[in-house]
Amino acid sequence: MAKVLVTGGKGFIGSNLVKELRRRGHDVWFCDLTHSDDPKSVRCDVSKYRQVERLFETHDFEYVYHAAAEYGRWNGEEYYENLWLTNVIGTKNIIRMQEKKKFRMIFFSSAEVYGDYQGVMKEDVPEKIHIHLLNDYAMTKWVGEMMIKNSAMQYGTETVIVRPFNVYGPGEHYHPFRGFIPKFIYKALHDEPYTVYLGHKRTLEYVDDVCRALANIIDNFKPGEVYNLGGDEQYEIKYISDLILSYLGKDDSRVIYKDAEPFTTKVKTPDSTKAKRDLGFRITVKPEEGIPRTIEWFKSVYGFREK
Asked: Which of the residues 99, 103, 124, 270 has an alpha carbon 20 to 30 A from that of 201?
C-alpha cells in the first residue's frame, strides 16, 4: 500500500477521495486551509511556499493528489486574487516539491479548459485547436497543466492530469459560487428562488464513481496521461431541477426560467474512452438515484425538517 497525500482533503471531491483511498488500505494524509481533528491531517495553504515545504520536509509521499483549488468561474471573477494564488502559485509550489521529492502526482484540472469548444471533447483538443477560455478559473487550470508538462520535460516529474466534468453528490456544501445541483437543492429546500437556463445540457458524475476511478490511478499510473472524467449521457438542466422538486414534493413556482446563460457552453460532450480503458471509469449511479441521496445528505447537514 502507498503513502498518499490529498491536498484540499476537506473539500468536496477531496474528502470523498480520502475515504475511498483509506478503504483500500492506503496510508492517506490530507492537507487543507483549516485545522482538522484527523490525526493524519495538516493545516496548509498551498499558496504559501513555507507551509508546503514544511509539510514535505516531514513526510515522504509516494503519490500526491493535488485537488486544492479555488473553484468556480464566478468565484474566480469575484475573488481572482485568491484564485490565481491558490490555483497557479499553489500548484507551482507543489510542482517544486515534486521536483525535489520525486513523488508521482495526480493533478485535478477541469472540463473548463475546453472553453467554448462545441465538439466532442477529446483530451488532445486544447493542444490542437485554438480555444477561447471563458473565465479565469479555466485559465488557471490550463496554466497548471502547462506548468506540469514543462516540469516533466525539464525535471522528469511524473504526473497524471484528470479533467472532471460535473461531479455531484454528498459532501458538496452550498455556497453561491458552487455548481447548479447544490444550489438548486439548497434553494428548493428553503423555498428560495433560483434560475434555470433552458437548452443547457450537462453530463453528471456521482462522486463515488469519480473517486473509484481516481483511486485506480495508483494501480495503473501512466505518466503524462490526461483523462476526461465525464459521463456519456446528457441531461437538460431543467430535468435536474424537476427531479429535485419532484423528490421534495414541490412545484416550480419559485423557479426563474431563462433562455441561455451568457459565456457558457450550452452542451459539453466529453470523450472518456481512455478513463474507461485505464481507470475502469463507469457511471453506476444515475441522477435518479444520486440526486435523492444528495438531497438526503443536505437535509441532514443543514438540519432540515419536513414541514
From this structure: 124
Q: How far apart are CA 138 and CA 136, in angstroms?
A: 5
CA distance 97 to 157: 10
Q: What is the mean pLDDT of the chain?
A: 95
pLDDT digits (tens, 9 = 90+) for 87-143: 999 999 999 999 999 999 999 999 999 998 889 999 999 999 889 998 999 999 999
Cβ atoms of residues 201 and 236 within 8 Å: yes
Q: How far is Cα 72 from Cα 138, in angstroms, rounded to an integer? A: 9
232 Cβ neighbours under 8 A, 6+ residues apart: 203, 272, 283
Residue 245 in contact with residue 280, Cβ under 8 Å?
A: no
> Cβ(294)–Cβ(188) under 8 Å?
no
The whole-angstrom separation of Cα 232 and Cα 216 is: 20
Give pLDDT tens digits for 241-286.
999 999 999 999 999 999 877 767 788 999 999 999 999 999 999 9
pLDDT of 139-154, one tens digit each? 999 999 999 999 999 9
DSSP string, 38-87: -TTEEE--TT-HHHHHHHHHS---SEEEE------HHHHHHTHHHHHIII
The 3-state DSSP class for residue 113 equals helix
* Cell numbers linked to 59: 513526510
Place of cell 472532471: 164
Contact 112, 141 (CB under 8 A): yes
CB–CB of 282/209 below 8 Å?
A: yes
Radius of gyration of the chain (CA): 19
